[in-house]
Structure formats: structure tokens, C-alpha cells
Amino acid sequence: MNAPFALAREMVRLIDLADPGEARRIEAFLAAHPDATPFHRPAWLAAVERGTGNRALALVAERDDAIAAYLPLNEVHSPIFGRLLASSGFAVGGGLLARPGCAGEAIFAATEELALRRSCPTIELRGGQLPQARAGWTLKRDSHCGFVLPLAADDAAQLTAIPRKQRAEVRKGLQADLTIEAGMGEGDRAAHYAVYAESVRNLGTPVFPRALFAAVLDLFGADADILTVRHQGRPVASVLSLYHGGAVMPYWGGGTWDARRLRANDRMYYELMLHARRRGCTHFDFGRSKTGSGAYHFKRNWGFEPAPLTYASWTAPGAGRRDADPTSARHAAQIEVWQRLPLALANRLGPLIARGLG
To answer: Kindly report the CA angle at 130 between 31 and 137, in degrees rounded to 5?
Structure first.
């Protein structure tokens, strides 16, 4: 698509993310925007494209040669769930970022046109500035919550900041025969993928392609790493975290069956808090969880207060609604079957399915 979308005050166009100059302009825009997330970064979009094959796209609205609004997108293809434009793909954040005075209507209209041109009957915006009264759009409120807290001043204060019952679990993890490693080398990556793949299989969810994790680590560089907890040399809990704007976000994490007995997950998140503070972080972003879920209550046990999130979705005229929510009742039977699959088979089939979840 080479022709720009012409508007009275702004010009909306699809930019070339492979152009280093364009990527630098976007990074500068994000650095100045208070609502930017790791999922807005060109590196995230490129990692999704490299790791899953889902094309990276981005729309910008420009005024007087300056970026007035920016919408990151991945074009997600799935033979099971259909096609969509996601902002951003495989993310819990994203959506439109705009400067004051830019209403966003022009870029929403351009996104709808882009979706139709690319045969994507669905658009999902995961945060950011949302359309309030546009035909075809639905706002989803209170289905998910985010969790963010400041980090404490030192290790001891971080431990005492954890509520009493959860602190007792962390102390048990501190007393267990566990070792902590952090890095982004091949050994870190292999340990993380093995643990994460087993964890999501146990939850009944297909695992993402290993290439996605590798691409995020490679393209984010110092802004991502892996922390792994080992028991007698064997990895039992591991998390891949993103660093952005002074906050750490443990994004892809999990544990083996032994992790619960060893309190390895509790130890992992506490150690990540310490690790992040030593890296210069000031906040711990525990990501999102479905409201009322086990993960939601787990994060509350750590002292995090839930902040409701609002997402938006658009469905093309005449198209059916996309349902790729793993917690949907429609998918309950498939989840039960997946939980019983041998791990080797789940790891072989999972990436083929998960690359289209978006």
C-alpha cells in the first residue's frame, strides 16, 4: 500500500519499519510519550514477524512533518482463528499513541481500510487511545487488569513489602536448595523454553515458537533477559522479562510441577525484583491477568492492586466475531485434551497453532 490516506489536518500513512530512519523517528516519539510500552517498539513488531511469520506494520499520522499519532500492528494469520490486525501481536499492550490535540479518528479510519485491504475481518487494540463511538467497534472493559508497584529501596525492604502470607512462601523458597541465574545466552534460552513449554502444556495452552523468544531477546538486546531458578542443576522456574521506562515486566514465565513444592515461582519473582532494582528499575509491572482468575489472585497476594484495562475490537461488516481467548468456554474441551498430551507431542504441535493466536 503506497498511497497515503489524505486528511484535512493530518496525513496518515503506512511506514516502512525496515527503514532505520523511520524506526529511529518512532523510538524518539515513544521516548517522549508517557503511555508507551515495550509492545509499541519497532523491535517488538519485528520480533513477532521474525519469530512467527506475522507481518509487522505501522501507521503514523503526521502533521507538519512530525509524528502526531502512531499505531503498531501485526497482521496475524491463523487457519483456526482467522486473520486479524493486532496492536500489538502476542502482546498485552499496544494500541494508538497520540500527541495532545490528535483525536485519533483519522488513524482508526485508516486502520479499518487497511484491514479490509488485507482481508483481515478483525482489529484488536490492546490499550492506548481507543475509539469511543465508531461503527463496528466494541469496547471490552474489566475483563483484564494490570498490576504495577514501585520497587523497594533494598533487598530487605523488598521482602518486608510483600504481604505476610506471600512473604512466608518466599521465605520457604529462600530456604530451599535453589540457585538463580540471569542472562540471555543459549543455555538461558534452552532452560527457559523447556520450563515454559512444560508450564503452558500443563495449563492446556500451545507453546509459542522458540524463534519468537529468540527474536525478542536478539532485537531487544539489553532491554530483555532471562532469570532461571534451578534445583540441583535442573531448571524448575524461568521467566523472560522486558525492561522499559524504568519498569521490569516478567512476560513469559512458568514453572515445572516441582516448582510449586519448591516455591520456585515465588523465589523467582522475588529475585527478579532484586535483579531489576540492581539494573536501575523503579517499578515492577506484573503484566495483565484475567479478572478473577488464579493469576489475578496470585498477584493480589503479592500486594499488587488491580487496575482495570480496556481493549477495543472491530469486526468487518458481515463477518463473525473472532474468538481465540483460551479461557473461552468454547475452547474448554480442547484445553482439557491439550493438558493430557505428552510433552514432546505438545511441543511439536504447539508452535504450529500458537503462531496464529496473536
So the answer is: 150
| Residue 221 phi, psi dihedral angles, 5° rounding | 60, -125
Cα 306 to Cα 297: distance, rounded to the nearest angstrom: 9
Please give the Cα distance from 68 to 144 (Å, whole number): 29
**Which pairs from 337-340 meet CB under 8 Å and 24+ separation?**
337/204, 338/201, 338/204, 338/205, 338/206, 339/201, 339/202, 339/203, 339/204
Cell of 51: 519469530
User: All domains of the chain, ordered by start, with CATH?
Assistant: 5-142+310-322 (3.40.630.30), 152-281 (3.40.630.30)
Q: How many CB atoms lie within 10 A of CB 170?
A: 21
Q: What is the total residue count of the chain?
A: 358
Q: Residue 24 is which amino acid?
A: R
The single residue listed with the C-alpha cell 487494540 is 125
> Cα(125)–Cα(103) distance, rounded to whole angstroms?
16
pLDDT band at 7 (very low <50, low <70, confident <90, very high): very low
List, as one string, the DSSP characters of 126-157: -SBB--SS-TTEEEEEEEEEEEEEEPPSSHHH
Kind and range of the H or E element at 288? strand 283-290
Instruction: Give yes or no for a contact between 262 and 176, defined as CB atoms under 8 angstroms apart.
Output: yes
**Reported pTM:** 0.91
Encode pLDDT of 79-124 as tens digits: 878 899 999 999 999 999 999 888 789 999 999 999 999 999 999 9
